[in-house]
Amino acid sequence: MRHALLAFVFVLLSVPAVAGIRYEFKATGAETSRLTIEAVGDIEAIEPLIRDFQVLEPGLSITYVDNLTNDLFEMLQAACAKDMIVADLVFSSAVDHMVKLANDGCAQPYASPETVRAPPFANWHDEVFGFSFEPAVIVYNRNLVPPADVPRSRDQMVDLLRNKAAAYDKRVGTYDIARSGIGYLFGFFDAQQSSAFGRMMEGFGRAHAGLYCCTGELLRDIESGKILIGYNLLGSYAYGRFKAGAPIGIVLPRDYTLVLSRAAFVPAHAANPQAGKKFLDYLLSLRGQKMAAEKSFFFAYGQAAPEGVDAAEPDLQSGIYRPIPLGPALLAVTDRHKKARLLKEWNQSFQAQ
Amino acid sequence: MAGKTPSLFWRLTTAISLGLLLGAGILAYAAYNYAHTAADDAYDRLLLGAASQIGETIRVEDQAITTDIPVSAFETLSVSRQERVYYRVVGPDGASLTGYDDLQVPHNLLRAGSSPKVWDGTFKGYPVRIAAVSHYVSDPAATGWATILVAQTRDARNALARELTLRAMALVGIMSVIALVGVVLATRYALRPLHRIEQALGSRDPNDLTPLDIRAPVEIEGLTQSINHFMERLSGRMDSLQSMIADAAHQIRTPITALTAQVELLKRETVPAKRKHHLTRVVARTAQIGRLVSQLLSHAMVSHRAQSITASPIDLVELVHQAVADAIPAAMDRDISVEMNVGPAPVFIEGDPISLREAIRNIIENAVHHGAKTKITIAIEARESHVVLVIGDDGPGIPIQQWPDVTRRFFRASTEGVGSGLGLAITADVAKNHGAQLEFAHGENDMFLVCMIFPRTNGASS
Predict the structure, then answer these.
(1) pLDDT value for B165
(2) Which domains does chain A have, with CATH numbers?
């Protein structure tokens, strides 16, 4: 008992202070076991999945902690280095963080009939699994942006900012890649994919674009009309607002659409790894995928974009969807030189004008 | 009979199987080593490539060394999507620039400018293969060798090595099976002539002793020849045995018929004087039959020994003494002197002592029964190349025209007398079996001489 207490104090001292928000989901029946999830994911998206999972596992009490990407990464890295237990399952939209942790041996391997269902790009080493399909989208205010202005590709976005510079000055926004892990990840792959991205960032700089930490704030300002167009938002969250009646339109860029698959793994040291694996199985299962497509992320692998979304082609083979593959290539994303260089270039683009 | 020896088929198959197994083992070991090296070679190239790619991005910006880690460097390494990848860039001053700071650099590499190196190590508890490449930075701000380390877990290369080994082993296995089947078929084929001989002998009539007419390969021609030779000898034995039995039956039947007739006469005769006469005849006839049977057995013994007894050195002088002793009781009836003309030294010849003794005794008995009036002379002369035994008597001897015939079985010089007609035949057979010659001659003082001339074997005189 005393050891446990000491250990607890030790945890408090050694793990960086976590500003995550805790949500408790008591077992619907008599509690037989507990599952702790440390993750990055809006509770609105995750709650339906947890509730549905508890229908299957009525004896399971679930603690869900929603963190910021960098906080989660630092906490897991520190815990992994000291072989400490923090959660039975972790997931994050910052897939580069997840792959780096797994690469460093912080995840335990798991294979089951459900995990083989994950597409190849969403399974690394049977340790990290991508369970969602979340495109990076352009969001605009339906009431304030004339249909002719709606950009459907990065080139159109560049043209719009050039041709109607006055109308959109200070009225566009995107992630601050220095502050947002997901913004940096999308920015990194955008820079890899096309030269249009650089020109677009220059355009954003000229237009004095607003820089945001999170998808939620960006969406709020688009809804309110403070800004008119946002770039590289997570399609899942945007569609959630759209469905809730927000006056926004969603465009999947037609030159290419980056797709993020939220990455999950069972930590190498877990109190109840079986429960973590069960939930992972659920997330990858047909039932979990169906639930996610209906209530959480709205987009799903191999399915057409949901109604109301401006998308060119539902076909995955068209090459427009470019999933970010889970794998060691993501190590380059977390490289400190690489990050410094990208931030520098990004800042230069923004401040060039 | 001793324990059953394994069949030729199993001997060959087992020996060759063991050979194949040994070969397969050696090949497996070689294949494993080769596959391991090949897998390492292939993946080491990727590893070094990745390190070089990173090295090429090293440059100096704002007075500091910086890199631009290319995604492609890791993409090449994650071809198999299985591997953990670690990397580190160390500046000329030994300070970590980027990557995993705790990935160790061997001291000899820090010394600058070494050629690319690859070695096995452990990182974060995983066995890894580590490649190091040096890259020269020439800038006033920082000059010297930067080192790029790239490490990769071994899963993919182990899997490749395993797969290569298994494939090689599958080939070795297939080849071994083919070889084994070939061996089985070849052995069957090679042993078929033996099988044919077996069948030919097995299906043969027991009385059929003609030679086997089977075409056999060179290797077993000797066997068929031996079998044929054996059968030839067997056939000869059977023939001589059959003719001997036929002769014996014929020879015995005649005196027994005569004996029966005389016994009949004796039964009916009432006159005592005549009865006595008949009785004497019966006794004489019985003695003759006894001698005949004895000689027949003696002859059978001699022919048997000729084929079954191996020759040994014997002293002819000693043998003659024994033969005379055997014949003496017969000589005692009459007043005959035996004159031995032999030296004191033993004279050795090669042969069967029992057969020879029988032969010499027959000559002496012949002399006693048919010839000698007063004396018998016996002489042994040891000459350069042969030994001559001469037995002479002062009787009438055998007429010269009968000389060629007296050595035939059942030849009698006269129908009268007590001879069986076998004595000289036995002697002639023994002489023939010993490579000796049997000759007759007339010597000084009208002596009739019987000579046995033995070849002298090497060392026999010493």
Answers:
(1) 92
(2) 2-132+262-296 (3.40.190.10), 134-259+306-351 (3.40.190.10)
User: Rounded to two decimals, what is the model's pTM?
Assistant: 0.67
Parallel, antiparallel or unpaired: strands A229-234 and A172-175: parallel
Answer yes or no: do A125 and B85 touch at CB < 8 A. Answer: no
Residues of chain B contacting residue A190, judged by C-beta atoms under 8 Å apart: none
Residue A227: pLDDT above 90? yes
On average, the pLDDT of chain A sits at 88
Contact predicate A73/A97, CB 8 Å = yes
Q: Which residue of B has its CA nearest to A109?
A: B82
Report chain B (462 residues): mean pLDDT per 10 consecutive residues: 71 88 91 92 91 90 86 79 86 87 74 79 91 87 86 89 92 90 88 84 82 80 86 85 82 85 87 87 86 82 78 86 76 72 82 86 82 83 86 83 78 57 82 87 84 75 40
The pLDDT, as a whole number, for residue B301 is 82
Is A189 at the interface with chain B, CB within 8 A? Answer: no
CB B376, CB B368: distance < 8 Å: yes
B16 lies in the same domain as B145 = yes
pLDDT of the residue at B313:
86
Structure tokens at A122: 């969403």
> Is B175 within the bounds of a domain?
no
Residue B64 phi, psi dihedral angles, 5° rounding: -135, 145
CB-defined contacts A:B, below 8 A? 58
Chain A nearest-CA distance from B32, in A, is: 25
Task: State whether B374 and B404 are in the same domain.
Answer: yes
Q: What are phi and psi of B443, to 5 degrees?
A: -105, -165
- At A264 the pLDDT is 97
Tell whether A109 is within 8 A of chain B (Cβ). no
Decide if B125 and A105 are in contact by the 8 Å CB cutoff: yes
> Do residues B17 and B140 both lie within one domain?
yes
Contact, A199 vs A161, CB < 8 A?
no
Residues B40 and B50 in one domain: yes
Q: Do A341 and B66 touch (CB under 8 A)?
A: yes
Give the ipTM of the model, two decimals please. Answer: 0.82
Q: Which residues of B touch A341 (CB under 8 A)?
A: 66, 68
What span, in angstroms and rounded, lies between the C-alpha atoms of B60 and A240? 47
**Domain of residue B228, CATH code:** 1.10.287
Label residues B175-186 b or e (16+ Cβ within 10 Å = b). ebeebeeebeee
pLDDT digits (tens, 9 = 90+) for A247-287: 999 999 988 999 999 999 999 999 999 999 999 999 999 99
Selected residue of B54, B81, B153 to mutate for chain A interface (largest A Cβ count, 10 A): B81
Please report the pLDDT score of residue A161 as a whole number.
Answer: 92
- Is A328 at the interface with chain B, CB within 8 A? yes
Q: pLDDT at position A9, please?
A: 39
Tell me how close the Cα of A168 comes to any Cα of chain B, in angstroms: 34
Q: Is A316 exposed, middle or buried (0-12, 13-18, 19+ CB in 10 A)?
A: middle
Residue B75 lies in a domain: yes
Q: Which domain holds residue B320?
A: 310-462
Residues B339 and B223 in one domain: no
CA distances from B368 to A313, B336, B337 (A): 140, 8, 10
Q: Minimal Cα–Cα distance from B77 to chain A, Å?
A: 8
Contacts of B98 in chain A (CB under 8 A): 335-338
